[in-house]
Design goal:
The structure is a homodimer of 463-residue chains. By secondary structure, chain A is of the alpha/beta class. Chain A contains 19 helices and 15 strands.
Chain lengths: 463, 463
């Protein structure tokens, strides 16, 4: 009934004809650009040719291009998007009423697809360019399984091979994720495996190991570079991924503009940065061009606080140290977040675009502990209906904080946050929360120092 | 690109202002009405007063009313619907292209909410009327957990107590479903339990039993009738449930009318009948009034073939024989479908509305075996993106069959089917299918006869 007066529907869906036809590259509007990827051997910027054995050509072009503002979205990708996009921009009337806040809360919900998250936006783009290049397939790693699922779906649609190296402990503990990927025709291999040299080496040195993301990346890269017609793809961190994810922000902005809504605060959870970067890109563009101002807040877990407690230096993107060096806020590629932490956002670093924006003071960062995040998740689920992913719930937590501040001050701020996905595959964590056995974990300064000690040292890369 | 020429979008979403504000009661347009519920003791039609200790007053009124065509949807229910409805009517362009069929395929997708299915449509209505009556809460049983989840969500929203008796084997084997319900604040009890007299009796007679749906119903009914301020609610079979589910068909019809689309064939899976009944209601109304003709197809599992191999007689609605007698197509309330059968649709009977329509020759029924259903599910998932529930996949199977027939004949039929939900909690079954260990099961005539032998015998109820 509240919405009758406001004339703003519970859910704003764009028409197909209003959907974005171009991705937006926020780097084009940054005066000081993110630092380039470095070759760890030469410490010189990675060139197109150096990246070609690993990545698809068009994706390298996108990765290296920090001046072109818009990239056309190919028709086949647009058609795929039409199967699950536009995603709804939801007015959280019920949450507002529950909180008794004068704030207006909106969230962009990316969980209404079988992969359960925004990852599909980049998976289809990456798979498309691989197919365009005439490749047979792609390889990747997956931990919790969201990215692997998204990539499997994209590859099934395009008829591409999809090889997923899944961290062995997840392969065994998350059989449902594995089966979704297999249903979509992916070849899912527990890592470390006997399929690669690095896998065999690790297995012989550490029999019985349950694997790690670093090891899975190394296997996926080796598989891609030793098989004709394959390339490696990655679901976050890279600038190309933020480019594809800009579809989230572009749709959001179009929907808000249509109803004359201007957000004051824009909040997103941040692991590698793909969702937050995608959501804020067009708004940040306006801020960079001096057209408008917004208050951006990145929310990361207190157990893996790369922005709030990390260093802004060059570091390896992967624990296996096979990928190029990226300048980013990092806890060190050897930093392993507590296994008690639920869900994603466990990445030691942060997108170099977001790192640079944060370093320039254009964005705030906060950390949240997981029990308070699940408290927010439960409150949200009960009034808004959607069971959120633990990752997304970091943004919910801070959105609620901001809405309660408005209640105190009486300000009618418009709060926008990204609801990246659903928690259907995270119910072990919900069970812990429901049973009161969930623990918080904040790394000590000594633990962080151990991570920093692993950061490569070279002139200009002082911590 | 195909859709550019057709001008029909991939997904048709109604505006909030176009959403139905009344439920449609198909019984009002039936010349020969479904037979009334009978009191098993007196064999006379159940009266309002006899039903009051078990069900909410308004729901009894709806159950017994076979003449009022439209019931207003209360504003609070309409507001709740706006959180997850209108559900999309999807044009299956990708499936059409994969099948190379001239048929036009549409599906109404009810899985875009946390309960994962259409069950929420009736859960919120039943919870609302309970609250209106000033009750403290409701009780119910759940097997696979879809209905229990939906009811938990509805009760959390309205601030009602929700007690769910979950068949013990499911409680243990489907911990995720259990945790979703707990996150929504429901009290979930494995059945049989120590909380009820019937539960204690069964436990003492059969220590170590893993429970049954019949036992869980008996416990839920006992709990409701022995606690002040509680009533029992049910997620399918009853005519009130079909009334609430008519929202599916009403939205579908509005969306199709908006684009000038007329379906030739309308297909739904059928367990207790809530989804199929809801989808076809307004179309069946037109057929009953002689305004239009449609070809309706109910699809049931070959392992639980109530329409295709059952008897049209009075039978108990529950295996515990505590509920009234309903005239319906039934396999006998003692019939237990093979445990190898995946997902829902395991109900021994069928909605008395659908049974009567089928008996009058207004609807076709077919059965499908589960491996062919999963083959259809996988094909659908790979091209349309959505991972379907096993239940829904029965409708997909027949929709594909019909589309392939059109390919042979060249007919450009318009096929509509109901996609009731997602398969995120059915991945054990997908795993069996992926591993090639899934088995089909068709009951023998002798097994069916054993079920028929349990049907109550009285004058006029001959098999």
């Amino acid at each position: 009934m509240k919405n009758e007066a406001n004339k703003i529907p519970y859910k704003i869906y764009l028409e197909e004809s209003e959907m974005p036809t171009q991705y937006y590259n926020v780097r084009a509007d940054m005066k000081k650009k993110p630092a380039p990827l470095l070759n760890p051997g030469t410490l010189k910027p990675m060139t197109f040719d150096e990246l070609r054995p690993v990545f698809c050509d068009e994706l390298i072009r996108q990765e290296l291009d920090d001046t072109t503002a818009y990239f056309d979205i190919p028709q086949e990708i647009q058609d795929f998007y039409k199967m699950y996009r536009p995603s709804p921009l939801v007015r959280a009337y019920c949450l507002e009423e529950k909180l008794q806040t004068p704030a207006k809360i909106y969230y962009k919900f990316e969980g209404n697809n079988t992969s359960g998250s925004h990852k599909l936006n980049s998976a289809i783009a990456q798979a498309y360019y691989a197919k365009q290049q005439g490749l047979k397939g792609v390889t990747t790693e997956t931990g919790a399984g969201q990215w692997g699922t998204a990539l499997s779906m994209a590859c099934a649609y395009l008829g591409l091979d999809c090889k997923v190296y899944m961290v062995k402990v997840s392969y065994e503990q998350k059989p449902f994720r594995r089966e979704v990927m297999r249903t979509y025709g992916a070849q899912v291999t527990p890592s470390p495996s006997e399929s690669t040299e690095i896998g065999r080496k690790i297995l012989s040195e550490h029999p019985g190991t349950t694997g790690s993301l670093g090891c899975a990346i190394s296997e996926a890269v080796e598989d891609a570079t030793t098989h004709e017609g394959y390339r490696y793809v990655l679901g976050s961190v890279l600038s190309q991924v933020l480019l594809h994810q800009s579809i989230i922000g572009l749709e959001t902005k179009t929907a808000m503009d249509k109803y004359g809504i201007t957000p004051d605060v824009i909040i997103g959870c941040a692991g590698g940065g793909s969702n937050l970067g995608g959501l804020i890109s067009p708004f940040m563009g306006e801020k960079l061009r001096g057209e408008k101002d917004y208050h951006f807040i990145a929310v990361e877990p207190a157990s893996c606080p790369s922005l709030t407690r990390g260093k802004y230096v060059y570091d390896f993107c992967d624990t296996g140290m096979v990928c190029p060096l990226a300048k980013m806020y990092t806890l060190g590629s050897g930093f392993i977040p507590s296994p008690s932490h639920a869900g994603g956002l466990r990445y030691h670093g942060m997108s170099s675009i977001l790192s640079e924006l944060y370093d320039q003071g254009l964005m705030e960062a906060r950390s949240a502990e997981q029990t308070e995040v699940f408290t927010a998740a439960e409150e949200f689920a009960r009034v808004e209906g959607i069971l959120p992913a633990p990752e997304s719930s970091h943004a919910i937590k801070v959105a609620i904080d901001e809405a309660l501040k408005c209640k105190e001050t009486g300000e009618e701020k418009t709060i926008l946050f990204g609801l990246t996905g659903t928690g259907y595959f995270d119910l072990k964590a919900y069970e812990q929360y429901n049973n009161g056995t969930m623990k918080d974990y904040i790394p000590t300064d000594e633990e962080l120092q151990a991570g920093f000690d692993g950061i490569p040292k070279f002139p200009g890369n002082e911590i």
